[in-house]
Amino acid sequence: MSKxxxxxxxxCSCLFSGAGIALGQEQKSRYxxxxxxxxxxxxxxxxxxxxxxxxxxNTRKKNVVTVADEVLAKTDIIIEKVQIVLDMFPNxxxxxxxxxxxxxxxxxxxxxxxxxxxxxxxxxxxxxxxxYISADDTSxxxxxxxxxxxxxxxxxxxRPPYNxxxxxxxxxxxxxxx
Length: 178
Ligand SMILES: [Zn+2]
Hints:
alpha/beta
């Protein structure tokens, strides 16, 4: 590739890699494209994402070398479990998972996109098929709730009313440890 073409290529990759946040590392699994800027944030997310015993049994079967591998393996397992809980197995399910340092980063990204101030520790963007989550506040329940939203979103062709969407996400959060 010529130097010029390479520059153009780089520029395009940046333009397509998501508005508003400078994305650093990116890695894919079956269901997830993981994005994070900072290895410490990745580590904190991984430490806070404690699986239940039943769920963690499944991670041992997977090839896990790096922290990112572990995060992706755990997230895929949670996604499969939430699909079972909701009894919804959408085709072509794939989401982006963006790790942010803390609640104020989540608020900053949300404000940039929607112009509103919120105090979410995580949210799922329907238009971007993306979960934004504060590594600081991550837990199995918080991630399962947002994954619940994403599965409901992929499953229905006509979007259910907001309250029903929320109800199903809460159901996923509650029963992920069953
Ligand atoms: Zn919700």
